[in-house]
Description:
The chain is an all-alpha fold. It has helices at residues 2-18, 24-41, 52-82, 87-97, 101-115, 121-139, 143-157, 164-173, 177-181, 185-213, 217-225, 276-292, 297-312, 316-324, 327-349, 352-363, 372-386, 389-405, 411-418, 422-425, 432-440, 445-470. Mean pLDDT is 81; it is low at 226-263.
Amino acid sequence: MLIVLGSAMIAVFMYLILAKRLAPTLALVLVPLTFALVATGTGLSEPGEDGVVDSISSAFSDFAPTAVLLFFAIIFFGTMIDVGLFDPLIRSVLRTVGNDPVRLVVLTAVLAGVVSLDGDGSTTFIITVSALLPIYLRLGLSPVVLTVVANLANGVLNILPWGGPTIRAATVLNVSPSELFNPMVPGMVAGIATVLLLAWQLGRSERKRLLASGRTLSVVADEMVAVREPALIGGGAGTDGPATGSGGGPADGADAGGALEGTLDPNRPTLRPTLIWFNLGLTVALLVVLGMDVLPLSLVFVAAAAVALVVNFPKPEDQLRAVTSHASSIVGVVSMVFAAAVLVGVLSGTGMVTAMANGIVSAVPPSVGSWFAVITGVLSMPLTFFLTNDAFYFGILPILTEAAGHYGIDPVEMARASIIGQPVHMTSPLVPALLLLVSLAKVDLADHHRRVIWRAALCSLVMLGVALLLGVVPLG
């Protein structure tokens, strides 16, 4: 019965989000709580100690540091955008891509991939969005393309050995991280190539729409060079302000230049050109400390945001204004983080996770037992989408591996199969970095999911195909 409830809960949740019947935050709260009431009302789970209520409370505690991190990360990088730290980078990007939107979208994949090498999704999305979103908006390109491409690149590289999934799989199955990861490198390379191909396809689509609107990158570059022309600040002809669609980004075919008034305006009052080297040094120091992993990430961002605000805005009223200017992004992402904790708490507290794992194992007939590694690779996509990595790797993977052992499949082979679904996992609303990505880009989660999930699944299937072809994941 718990298997049926869990499957129904996931189906209802995804329908409400993709059909835009409920805001993601509300869906993350109301759907799990409704099914939790059914589970406790029917006696299938306990509401109190070691049950749903305590699991949700525990999830709140576990997610709190992440919420703090994202809260102050938005303030810090938002402040860096306001004071003009990324303006030279934006102009450099325009020079690099010339007048071709396809190059811009492919460059998005390259930038996100390079930054993803540090193993931190939040940092990747913050830097990518900070550097490229203003250009997308100025051109009228869809910010959803930016979030999709960045999400895909980061998802493929999330299997790096210093990333969370590979370490979890190696730890729980007691295998060497290098023995697990090294044979998967060709598959990861193929996944990256797939991302670049998808970026190229998305770029071509956007180029057609952009040319139809009469705007090109060369026009935008001229506007940004002519920084003293007030008429060029705030949008193109026939647009009084930002044209937005339901996702919060530019409507298709609209000139979204007005969306950048106050963001790329070279005369904006928040610019601090004399502090650019200080701000660059502070940002580099922040990224170095994050990479060293010597302090809690939330504490690092709290301190960095405080220093950035005090130095760039000495007056208290300016500091308050700088913080509140990013209030909408902060509220959106932090509320979704704590809402996601409700879903995680209900899944674990009701016992749905364990029931579904045992159900999967029992549903595999002995005649296809030798395919257990392949089955695990396929299942890793939906399971890591609807579960946290901790729940999947520490709760479900050991069960699957024990069953696979009866068919002669080694734990390291199961570990390799288990990380194949990471491109799909990184598109999950349970991943705080994904919530940060859509919040910073002001993209509707449903719009993002419609375009990213099938592409992420394609990347995972390519990785699985290469792994099977090379024999690093056994086929039958």
